[in-house]
Amino acid sequence: MSDAAGLMDKIYRHQRHIYDASRKFYLLGRDTLIEALDPPTGGQVLEVGCGTGRNLIKIARTYSEVRCYGFDISSEMLTTARRSIMRAGLSARITLAQADATAFDARTMFGIGQFDRIVISYALSMMPGWEKVLVCAMKHLKPEGSIHIVDFGNQAGLPSPFRVALNRWLALFHVTPRLSLQRDLEVLTRSRQMRVRSESLYRGYTVRSVIDRAA
């Protein structure tokens, strides 16, 4: 794969073993996103940048009638994801692949061209070409489908010392919060006849957005 894959493998070669236990304290809003997915019965859900498979497992357990698909650029994370999915007894309902989120082709990977729901959880802040990720995701969305995003927000309500410490710490993992994400999503969707609804959570720590086709 690309240099990005090598970088992610380097970062998560050891981190993946404690990733879920540690991230639950600061990757806020993931479960709220999953609770709001409401996929149709028999639908297909795709996660872009699925990491350890934590979200896919929770989605599959929450919505027993859907098929789940996920991909990540890191082979190390996918190794952990496959093991976790197998232990959960969900290998028949969750399919994984390795791919670059900026230029993925789901039909090649999974034999499916479009999805009812697409999830992007704390991944845009790790991807330099995050706009390309969203454009590619939009191309894989069914006409009545929606893209569900949760990531770091604009931090507007957070104390300044906390913001400084947070961003320095995130930088160690090559994470760059997109402080103007809400505004950028509005511009990106408007130019493609789509709409976005966003809400800021936890004093701007987190932003949650839903993208679908404008009526």
Automatic annotation (TrEMBL):
MF terms (GO), sorted A to Z: methyltransferase activity
A Pfam family that the UniProt record links to this protein: Methyltransf_25
UniProt keyword Phosphoprotein present: no
InterPro entries assigned to the protein according to its UniProt record, in alphabetical order: Methyltransf_25 (IPR041698), SAM-dependent_MTases_sf (IPR029063)
Organism: Flaviflagellibacter deserti
One GO process term, biological-process aspect: methylation
Lineage: Bacteria, Pseudomonadati, Pseudomonadota, Alphaproteobacteria, Hyphomicrobiales
Ranges where the Methyltransferase domain occurs: 45-145
Highest taxon above the source species: Bacteria
Protein name: Class I SAM-dependent methyltransferase
EC number: 2.1.1.-
Keyword annotations: Methyltransferase, Transferase
Enzyme class: transferase
